[in-house]
């Protein structure tokens, strides 16, 4: 999927292969090819192949969830029969109490008054999950309820999270599908961010001009922490 632009005009990692778009059949073929290459490379290096991490990004409503569901269903079914875990970056949103604290700590920054932008996700939770999945260890996939508290949202109780790689469960997760609007995005340099903001102030196009530069810098700085998740992703769609 084509990448979007965040409040800080971020871009996907340039080290990843060219994106593949939304036709599920084309994506499945591409994913299987990349999975095979991933396994071959690890085995040639004498290592046990870790799960294959695939990132999917795109603007809201473009069909990320539908595409990921189709890919997951195909991978889980014969003849592939690959144990596949799915995580949306939305499920890493901060719990309500933490999001409320973030908003109140930055009352003038409209970008963090509600969930959505970089800085409103629990990166430590995501890294912990990815680390466990990479090591084929028992893990739980977090879940977030956007309808809680009249739409303000809150993390669901851990008791309802999906368990994977449980002891005695058989085959371990071989593919991890990670989807979200900013998956794979990288922060801009300070000079580039300022330049984009100044250009927006002149043109009044888009939304950057509506925000203070310091608020955009806050989001951009938070986005750097997302590199810890992006480093796990072998391919970004």
Write up what this structure looks like.
The protein has 237 residues and is α/β, with parallel strands linked by helices. The chain has helices spanning 24-44, 64-76, 96-105, 123-134, 148-151, 190-203, 213-224, 227-230, and strands at residues 11-12, 52-56, 84-88, 139-141, 144-145, 154-155, 162-164, 175-179, 185-186, 235-236. The strands form 4 sheets. It has a 4-stranded parallel beta sheet. It has a two-stranded antiparallel sheet with strand order 1-9. A two-stranded antiparallel sheet has the order 4-7. The protein is globular, with a radius of gyration of 19 Å. Mean pLDDT is 89; it is low at 1-18.
Topology:
Elements: E1 11-12, H1 24-44, E2 52-56, H2 64-76, E3 84-88, H3 96-105, H4 123-134, E4 139-141, E5 144-145, H5 148-151, E6 154-155, E7 162-164, E8 175-179, E9 185-186, H6 190-203, H7 213-224, H8 227-230, E10 235-236
Parallel strand pairs: 2-8, 2-10, 3-8
Antiparallel strand pairs: 1-9, 4-7, 5-6
